[in-house]
Design goal:
By secondary structure, the protein is mostly helical. Among the domains are: 55 residues; 72 residues, HscB, C-terminal domain (Monooxygenase, Up-down Bundle). It has seven helices and no strands. InterPro entries: DnaJ_domain, HscB, HscB_C_sf, HscB_oligo_C, J_dom_sf. One of its GO terms (cellular component) is mitochondrion.
């Protein structure tokens, strides 16, 4: 995680009357950035988040730390605004949220990490072949629909894994979700006769 530095002398120029709390820029956790000082009951480091609440908190924090506000250090506000943006983008999407939660628990997913379940791996390869063999937009649309349902189901199982603190299952499901999301991107960009490229 990127660590920002700030001149401590500038903190005295930071008016507490215009903000509800101070966000430390060093080692700030994304959940704290968006939920500290809010009235929501979201538990710390929860996978299940309300996108509506998340967006409301994001807009509220951006308003609090807007660089053009009076009585706020401009450099600090710019860095804080950037941190708030990154926190929001990370927590908004289930895949990046899962990767972040695993990182908080000391588990990193490398690009080379792949699916170890042989049955699941065959299912993923079959989906790829279906996309490669598609001849019409109708076929691709149906594939995206079916894949979307798989994404929803995997996200639900991922939520249960985090709730049960089953980090090994959470890691495997995150790898699966990454593949499904990449397949959706490839299907979205599908063109007749063009090679199918799926990022891993």
């Amino acid at each position: 995680m990127k660590v920002f530095s700030i001149n401590l002398r500038n903190i005295s120029r930071f008016s507490t009357s215009t903000t509800k709390f101070y966000i430390p820029l060093c080692d700030s956790k994304y959940y704290s950035v968006l939920f500290q000082g809010s009235d929501t009951s979201t538990p710390p480091h929860a996978f299940n988040l309300s996108n509506t609440t998340l967006k409301q908190n994001y807009l509220s924090k951006q308003k609090q730390f807007h660089p053009d506000k009076p009585n706020i250090d401009h450099d600090y506000a710019l860095q804080t605004s950037s941190l708030i943006n990154k926190a929001y983008e990370t927590l908004l999407h289930p895949l990046s949220r899962a990767v972040y939660l695993l990182e908080l628990n000391g588990i990193e997913i490398a690009e080379s990490d792949s699916i170890h379940d042989s049955t699941l791996l065959m299912d993923m390869l079959e989906l790829r072949e279906q996309l490669e063999d598609a001849q019409s937009e109708e076929e691709v649309t149906q594939l995206r629909h079916d894949n979307g349902q798989s994404i929803q189901q995997t996200t639900h199982l991922l939520s249960q894994a985090f709730e049960n603190n089953d980090l090994e299952s959470a890691k495997n499901l995150t790898i699966k979700l990454r593949y499904l999301c990449n397949l959706d991107v490839a299907a979205r960009d599908w063109q007749p006769g063009a090679p199918v490229v799926i990022q891993h």
